[in-house]
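Protein modeling request. Please complete all fields; requests missing the sequence field cannot be processed.
Requester role: graduate student
Desired output: 3D structure, token encoding
Chains: 1
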Amino acid sequence: MKFVFPDKIQLARIPTPIQRLDRLSTEWGVELRVKRDDLTGAELTGNKIRKLEYLLCDARHRGCDMIVTCGAVTSNHARAAAIAARRLGLHCLLILAGDPPALASGNLQLDLLVGAEVQYISREEYSANIDGILQQTEQELIAQGRKPYMIPTGGSNPIGLVGYVEAAREIRDQCAEENWFPDTLACAVGSGGTYAGLFLGNLLFRPAASVLGILVCGTVESFSSKIERDVRETCARFEIQETINTESIRLIDGYIAGGYAKTNSEQLRFIRHVAQQEAIFLDPVYTGKAFYGIYREIQAGRIPPNSRILLIHTGGIFGFSAFAEEMAAEWKSVASWPDCFA
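Delivered output (342 residues):
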């Protein structure tokens, strides 16, 4: 059926290119390409700006004078939201999980540079009650005479995920031009919105045979439920008459490496190998885990040889600085490494 997209504010540089990864394709025994959503902008790099185009347009329609959103201290979403809000003349309040660092760097440095107001809460508080904290904050701001627009973690709600419904249409058009359609469309799953948008977009526009999500936190059960709920709410909101087969939601969780924003030696080595082979920079929080997960699934035979795989590069380059110590420790003896990923 035809989907009528809601209004948006043009902020991202799209369409982003699809790039062949010939050397890794030869190594892995598949046809591998990457959708370069790390090229949606410089300061606005990454997947989050696709969602924010629709969310901030909704905020403007509602006459809001500020946005409130949340994430980790190193959040890509928070950084994109803070910068996009400032570009539109809106104040931004960020509620971030973690302790304030002695020296701000990466995404947080950019948050502060554009004048975002930051409130820090504990990771435990965030995990247990971020929805309640957002609701209370909204009530307090309204009492102060403000008009806040509330955005959940990752911008992952029915309005935000439309950004990746649109991306699925974009992918379909690009693949048609090349006469190359993937068997698997793969992305990292951290808040679920990108996957949910791609999943619904794949139902509507059919760019790929299936959509695979590699978890960077959480569990398959919790994300399956959230993604199903988000997709159904989006269909209801935009009157999409589409049959949702929840059994086709494909998620894997074996590559979390200890939890959100954590990594390990093998994944860091893999990130460096990909950079040396293709000059593609994967971050340890999202894309490093996603690409590594695909690699291991191929090695285990769960993705067949010669499969066509399109990986979504969701950005994250500003997050590298948070892993400077781990990278320095891992890479100091790089000259003596065996190349274990060839």
